[in-house]
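Here is one such tokenized protein:
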Amino acid sequence: MTSKILQDQSVVVLGGTAGIGQAVAQAAAVAGARVTVLGRSGAADGAIAGIAVDANDTASLVRAMSQAAAGGQIDHLVITIGSRKSPPPFASLQRADLEQGFGTKLFAALMAVQAALPHLAARASITLTSGLLSRKPTATGLLRASINAAVEAAARNLAKELAPRRVNVVSPGVVDTAVWGAQGDRQAMLARIGSGLPVGRVGTPDDLAQGYLLAMTNGFMTGALIDIDGGGLL
């Protein structure tokens, strides 16, 4: 029998309509939470409520967080949004690429946390999402590395400023989601990547969801960075 470790708690997942965010929402619901997902489509999923939001529009975030709280409190806020746009090499990087990348993953996440503040429980948890490129240099990873490192730095500062609310970060490695292309097209590529990892495979959204559940339920964890990357940093 599944433990109801989030029984009667409110969980809001920004980016929860697909990929890792969707897996987090489903896992939280199984754990007994009242779950609301925020995304462009606002699609609901069974018992999981859905609210449409433009994460790059602060007013839209404020409305969505108020609606998600529904006159109550938010116990756990999870943010998994990010850009699907592949950044160009540094030599052709434009200011617009920087603004789009940071805007979609870092700025939107910070504005979402700010919009949620009036509705967060006194000891709520906030979990952000970075990625292993923050600490794994690659020839073409400058933009993503910079954004992910900024997310991690922001979380540590928020963990101090917003205490006793807890703020943590989950850092995924390569995960089998639509970010890597259509289902049929990406399997051979992901198999090759997985064969080079210590665990012998890439991650699944369900693998990642367990890390977010840990961040939500461990009341002694804040300012932490949870690596779930199959050994990709080794």
The mean pLDDT is 94.
